[in-house]
Amino acid sequence: MRTPTRTRMTAVLSAEHRARLLGMAREVSIPEGTRIFEEGGRAERFWIIRSGTVTLDIRVPGQWHPVTIESLGFGELVGWSWLFPPYVWQLGAEAMTPVRAQEFDAQTVRMMMDADPAFGSAIGQWVGRVLAHRLQTARIRLLDLYAPHGSGSTAT
After folding, report:
1. Judging by beta carbons within 10 Å of its beta carbon (0-12, 13-18, 19+), is residue 36 exposed, middle or buried?
2. Tally of CB atoms within 10 A around 120
3. Cα distance between residue 81 and residue 90, in whole Å
4. Residues 80-100: pLDDT tens digits?
5. Which helix (H) or strand (E) holds 5?
6. CB 78, CB 72: distance < 8 Å
7. Residue 38 near residue 89 (C-beta atoms within 8 A)
8. Rounded CA gap, 36 and 38, in Å?
9. SS3 53
10. pTM of the full predicted structure?
11. pLDDT classification of 69: cutoffs 50, 70, 90
12. Which residue ranges form the domains of the chain, and what is each CATH number?
């Protein structure tokens, strides 16, 4: 299931808030097959994909490999756990292709959010939309994999 356009930064943040956030970005390249973060690790950074594909996954007891929950591409946020204490990744992520992304230092962004309530609210709304979508996607994926009759969803 692809992230709807309404959860992308460009659909949620004003031009001013986008510019402030992107002003803190660092361009990075992530090789194919790289584990970007592991479930349970410290969430100290986050990314917006410029090109390539990242999969989000979750460890399921009894399974050797993590189960893929969602594939992310251009313009999508990788990571939301950086915004909520205790700042621990709730999922894992892997670069499925070479990825170019804008990387952000989570502590710096949180400090800017605290210093400017309007900016903080806008970022919180954006990440909240992403989080709600990811929760629904994870629910559907896990039901499809493990429920006796699947989720009943026809979404792909």
Report:
1. buried
2. 18
3. 7
4. 999 999 999 999 999 999 999
5. none
6. yes
7. yes
8. 7
9. coil
10. 0.84
11. confident
12. 5-145 (2.60.120.10)
